[in-house]
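Write out this protein's structure.
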Amino acid sequence: MIKVHKSYSLDLSPEQTFFTKRVYEPMGRAPMFSIPQWNHCLIARLLHGAWLMNALSRPENGGTIDFNAPEGHRFLEWELRDGEAVCFDFRKLVGFSSTVRLEMVVSLRLTAFSMNRLFYHVAVGPGKLLLETGGVPNVFYTAAEAKSFPPSRLICWSADSVFGLEANSGTMDHYFSAAYLKALETRGLVIDADDLKETSGGFLTKLVKRMYGVG
């Protein structure tokens, strides 16, 4: 189940623990230092501030732990069933339940190259996965309802999703226009709001940025 929140209240039972990136400082409970699953997805967690984490437990008064997003942003909550697996972008991660297992998988599919990645990070339930979006996201539960989209806006998707490529065949489009993805099979995917600072770009655009170390 996927829910979008303008502000997010975490309601924990006495035996539950929730891990968050240390940049987040929610109200309601002082955090404890923790390194959960220290050898899982190690490089991505070091790069995106998710190796050293805060552990949150139920407040002594039994209330909620409250997160407030910056203006325009939203919190995305994915309630994972037992064994349900979701790929996600570590840059967007806020936190996850202690019952969620983190894994890394490798994909050699053509669509993986279009996203400029070979390694994918997966959260396996049961438990909650909490992400932060840059605006109001689009949530799709089936391939039939999902529209094509730029890879740069993909936040999270069911691990069994299958994507196809959609691109124009013109010579100039090949070098300067981005290839889009189209869901062929999915049980859920989330597309972030448009970000003018981060676009997919075409082949030539990406090549120039890499040569000059920008973007």
